[in-house]
Description:
Layout: E1 2-5, H1 9-12, H2 18-28, E2 38-42, E3 45-50, E4 62-64, E5 68-76, E6 80-86, E7 91-96, E8 101-105, E9 111-115, E10 119-123, E11 127-133, E12 143-150, H3 155-158
Antiparallel strand pairs: 1-10, 2-3, 3-12, 4-8, 5-10, 5-12, 6-9, 6-11, 7-8
Amino acid sequence: MIVGDINYLENYKNQLPEDLYICLDAMRGFPFEQVEDGKYIVWHCAMSVESPMTELAENRKLEGHKEFIDVVYEVDVEEEWIGYRPVKEGKEVERNQDKDLYFYDAKGEETKVHMRTGMFLICYPEDLHRPLCCGKSGPKRIRKAVLKFPVAKNKEESFI
């Protein structure tokens, strides 16, 4: 898992895989204020723009993906945290292969990644995550984008 601030994206350029850097740069320049929630194509990848409510962590599921890397960009977030733990610590309990969405059960405390506007998060298949958890002030409506970057060796086969 990689967490960063989009305002310092150039500092990450030599540290990120080139394709992921290009996706983040395209997300940074995307006209979020001019579009409605929905599905968009960014650098040949599917990106959803969403305005969900955060919830209590116990109402959110620990999830993972096998075919795609989640690239999350926080467009307008007052307060959200995302739980994290390595996939080896979870037990798969539910799957939807068509959506590349797998849910896990895991015991013990998760690492909490506190997110705010302008931050990005890259979740690899080895990274289980519990998104949309609310903070101490309770549920809030947020706006975020989630880009699905294929992990396939021949990426062109998986691009939209």
